[in-house]
Amino acid sequence: MTLVKSIPKTPESRISFTEYQRYDEVRQYLSQLASSYPSTVTVQTIGQTYEGRPLDIIQISSGGDGSRPVILIDAGIHAREWIAPAAALYVINQLVENAAESALTDSVDWHIIPVLNPDGYEYTFTDERMWRKTRSRASILCTGVDGNRNFDFHWNEVGASSYPCSDTYAGSEAFSESETQALRDYILANANRIKLYLTFHSYGPYLLYPWGYTSELPDDWETLDALARQADAAQQAAGGPSYAIGSSTNVLYAAAGGSDDWTKGVGGVALSYTIELPGGGNQGFNPPASDILNLVTPFFEAVRVFGQYVADNYG
Ligand code: 0X9
Ligand code: ZN
After folding, report:
1. How far is the CA of 77 from the centre of ligand 2 (A)?
2. 186: nearest Cα among 113, 87, 79, 107
3. In 3-state terms, the chain is what percent helix, strand and coil (to 5)?
């Protein structure tokens, strides 16, 4: 009966993609990678959550003395969107452990925060599977802030709520949350190197670019649009679904205070995208663990296109 559990994991995968991982397991995986690949992997803590969990980022670099262009990825700002951290872990796994993918790190560094809201993420395992927000208790009424309404760019203007019990509560002020502060500070500190930002969500499939606060398009929307279409085509060729592509407001809904808008509008990262991975399960946010690989494997082909673009244009 215990035989199945005793089958050793293959040497190149210290992490499973047939189960969703708890935050402790995620952190353990990152630190294992740092010890196994000391010349390419660094793990840093960029802040603490409201409940005191360390917020880890993994930096993957094949060299270049810290001057190469960076692709920044985060996932899991929304707690219940489990496929997003799983996809980030898969990207980490491929970039670090799959020697066949080493070209992707030849001239570009990848900085990845696989779980940006670990308090909320853990809460979805222990208490409430459909929890979305952080777990901060600033209000006596209700717990949590929507991290993706908490960024200081047209904050709380549209598609967000001032009511602490709402799932889209923008917070008592912009950057009220330690998790969004940590991301803000990291982006500002590395603004000269970050050329592309991806934030993983679910559920879609949507490939969204700014703006989310207005139906106006950014000046460079054609560049954003063309690259998104190329990424979509690549993952479709690998068996993925057809992503809807456009600005957040025009394709999904208007919602201000998102990390994508702030990163472009204030952080100065021209290429900024929200990726809504495909959904699953009876509530959209809960694809069965047995579907993780089917979802993230084609998706990696989209990530490859973003990586190639940054290598070609900034590498
Ligand atoms: O509403 C959101 O925060 C995102 N959708 S989700 O279902 N994952 O919650 C979309 C965010 C798009 N970007 C902006 N509105 N800035
Ligand atoms: Zn989301």
Report:
1. 7
2. 113
3. 35, 20, 45
User: Is 276 assigned a catalytic role?
Assistant: yes
Q: What are the extents of the domains in the chain?
A: 23-55+62-306
- 249 CA distance to ligand 1 middle (Å): 9
| Protein residue closest via CA to atom 12 of ligand 1 | 248
**Ligand 1 pocket, Cβ-based, cut-off 6 angstroms:** 78, 81, 148, 201, 208, 212, 248, 252, 255, 258, 260-261, 274, 276
Centroid of ligand 2 to alpha carbon of 23 (angstroms): 18
Single out the catalytic residue among 122, 179, 276, 301.
276
Per-residue pLDDT reduced to its tens digit, 73-111: 999 999 999 999 999 999 999 999 999 999 999 999 999
Cis peptide before 205 (omega within 30 of 0): yes
Query: Do the beta carbons of residue 78 and residue 281 sit within 8 Å?
Result: no
Q: Give the model confidence (pLDDT) of 112-133 as tens digits.
A: 999 999 999 999 999 999 999 9
What is the CATH number that goes with domain 23-55+62-306? 3.40.630.10
What pairs with residue 72 in β-bridges? Answer: 111, 197
Rounded to an integer, what distance in angstroms lies between the CA atom of residue 12 and that of residue 22? 20
CA 28, CA 278: separation in Å to the nearest integer? 27
> Token digits for 281?
């399960």
Residues lining ion ligand 2 (Cβ < 5 A) are: 78, 81, 201
Residues facing 48 on adjacent strands = 54
The answer to whether the predicted template modeling score (pTM) of the entire model surpasses 0.90 is yes
C-alpha distances out from residue 307 to 1, 42, 253, 264, 302, Å = 44, 19, 28, 18, 9
